[in-house]
Amino acid sequence: MHMHAFRRQWTADDLLDMPDDGRRYEVIDGELFVTPSPSADHQRALSHLFRRIAEYVERERIGEAFFAPADMTFSPRRSVRPDLFVVPLVGGRRTREFRDMKRLLLAVEVLSPSTARLDRVEKRGLFREEGVEEFWIVDLDARTVERSTPIDSRVDVLDLSLTWIPNGASTPFELDIPDYFAAVLDR
Of 69, 110, 104, which Cα lies nearest the Cα of 87? Predict the structure, then answer.
């Protein structure tokens, strides 16, 4: 007689019981993902990008930028902590609680060796399925930004410039990629 192995189906509520140990706990389609604390370069890359994006979305009055740790829960079986994300304003106002944020204009992950598969496969698929308008992966080693959208299965790998024009914006967000990496990596 063949016995099936039982695999626990994790939920967003299960994450409330996880230890505050510096690791990132996320659930995608019932599977638990645990990743270690980020490196200094990772945090520097996130900080530089966050400042630029936050200023842009505030100036354009289209949304609000956040950075991890902040939970983005799409459903009971899908709760992730993007490194950086932008939520749209609702009726010109900011959403007060993370649990009420169900739509993203942008999600960004800064790639780490321990998160490459999670970011490039699991999260890219999740963000496409959830209709996140843009998903970027910042690759510090390659000095590139990978861009994907829910309407195109291709991934654009950018190494010179990135232009983002979210709905409602009057001007584009522009990132000179070599300058960004020079500032972040100081080399």
Answer: 104
